[in-house]
Amino acid sequence: MRGGRGGGSGLRSFFSFRIFVSAMFSLLFLATLSVLFTTNPSTLQDDALPMAHNAYAGRTFLALKSDPLRTRVDLIHQQAKDHITLVNAYAAYARKLKLDISKQLKMFDELARDISDVSVKPNYQSLLFKPDGPIDEDVLRQFEKEVKDRVKIARVMILEAKENYDIQLKIQKLKDTIFAVNESLLKAKKNGALASLISAKSVPKSLHCLGMRLMGEKISHPDKYRDDEPKPEFEDPSLYHYAIFSDNVIAVSVVVRSVVKNAVEPWKHVFHVVTNRMNVAAMKVWFKMRPVEGGAFLEVKAVEEFTFLNSSYVPVLRQLESAKMHKLYLGNQAENTTTDAHSMKFRNPTHLSMLDHLRFYLPEMYPKLNKILLLDDDVVVQKDLTGLWKIDLDGKVNGAVETCFGSFHRYSRYLNFSHPLIKEGFNPKACAWAFGMNIFNLDAWRYEKSTDRYHYWQNMNEDQSLWKKGTLAPGLITFYSTTKSLDKSWHVLGLGYNPSISVEEINNAAVIHYNGDMKPWLDIALNQYKSLWTKYVDNDMEFVQMCNFGL
């Protein structure tokens, strides 16, 4: 949408430029004609030079037969007259365009008068311009010198001013300027995208502080933060189960608080939080210090606790261990620093993070559950979500909101349809959908053997010839033809990059998603959406205040 508006402005600028150039050509042409073909007697008298064409031609013809010096006078005179015409044309053109060049206009007028004054000097009139009188060669040389001096000055001044009046030169300069600006713009875009990527992927100081404070709390009071025994509710299929996979403590807390605060029966909701080994202790301390409200249940586990997730079974782990992938993602750092932001995004090793790919192992992680709702850590829940469990998925595995409109967000955007396997197996016009809020029928998943399908395609893409990055592309492949489209009000996306989402659309959404680089916990967040996230931050938590989140 922004592109559309930018394009319209570009077209208006383009046509304005065309109209401007046409007007300049027309005005210059008319100004020149008006000067060249003016026959106003008063103008002839003011110029004080013989300008009658027939008289000039006849005199030139006679001079050729009689006096060679007369021809020389006429040629010099004609040269002076031509430059007067040229100077007046530029002056007329400057007047018509109403440019802010009054000084230059005055200069041209004075120059024209100066050249005219040479010819009307009494000694030149009496010694050079009497048709039948003799011509003094010394006077002629003096006249020629004065005229040439003024002509030289006129040429220099016109050359200096030509840049303002020469249309072709101006067009070329504009083209050069546009090219230079485009180059600068491309460079600025690359630098901006790179800076945005670095900002988005780096750990903010406040978040790092929070993790350290939580770890310090655990070290100071180890007995206080011992793990509890698993509760039977964690495996009760009659309850509403959520899966959240993240290493961001405060983001997970916001997701959980927003679900609970908007739930009609919060005590029936169970949260399964999985993080990495580095953050699992901090995550557990947070939810020990700030228990989930409303009687909801929550468990925190590390990826490593799911022992079946090893390199012999999981293609992503095996690929991370391979020399080829290690070189692609982690090797040759000098080369990585020269790549643009787009390439760096492809090479970001988080795209092969096990946390991101846990979503493809939900039936094995939670074998006793029938349905589970997957939530990303950059969402905020605004309504009770239990209605999602009541939706009939018609035997499909995945319930998700589609993101396509027109030709946008089709499968062709995410998959390489020049590859024969992709071309034969999928429709490039198929509508894509979004991760972030997905209701999964785990029974249908097991029946369809979706994890096996994911493994097959992930193995085929070890060289990244089928798709480039992330988990959406393998998700589109894995759940191709087994995804049911949900109403768009369940999941509104774009709050992490699109500043133009309507207030009505946001207010009607059950889940809003800050997908994009401008996450709500970062300084680069879009201000108009930030309050929708910050209102669920637990500001009473002492470590949030101590770490200066700037909320």
Word description of this protein:
- By secondary structure, this protein is α/β, with parallel strands linked by helices.
- It has a domain of 316 residues: Alpha-Beta Complex (Spore Coat Polysaccharide Biosynthesis Protein SpsA, Chain A).
- Helices cover 55% and strands 8% of the residues.
- It has 25 helices and 10 strands.
- A 7-stranded mixed β-sheet has the order 3-2-1-4-7-6-8. A 3-stranded mixed β-sheet has the order 5-10-9.
- Helix 11 links the parallel strand 2 and strand 3.
- Helix 3 runs antiparallel to helix 4 and helix 5 packs antiparallel against helix 7.
- The longest helix has 35 residues.
Indicate the structural class. alpha/beta
CATH superfamily of the domain at 213-329 and 349-547: Spore Coat Polysaccharide Biosynthesis Protein SpsA, Chain A
Q: In the CATH scheme, what's the topology name of the domain at 213-329 and 349-547?
A: Spore Coat Polysaccharide Biosynthesis Protein SpsA, Chain A
- Low-pLDDT runs: 1-15, 38-65, 332-351
User: What's the helical proportion of residues?
Assistant: 40-55%
Radius of gyration: 40 Å
Q: What is the CATH domain class of the domain at 213-329 and 349-547?
A: Alpha Beta
With strands numbered from the N-terminus, the spatial order across the biggest sheet is 3-2-1-4-7-6-8
Membrane topology: Single-pass type II membrane protein
Main location: Golgi
Subcellular location: Golgi apparatus membrane
Organism: Lupinus albus
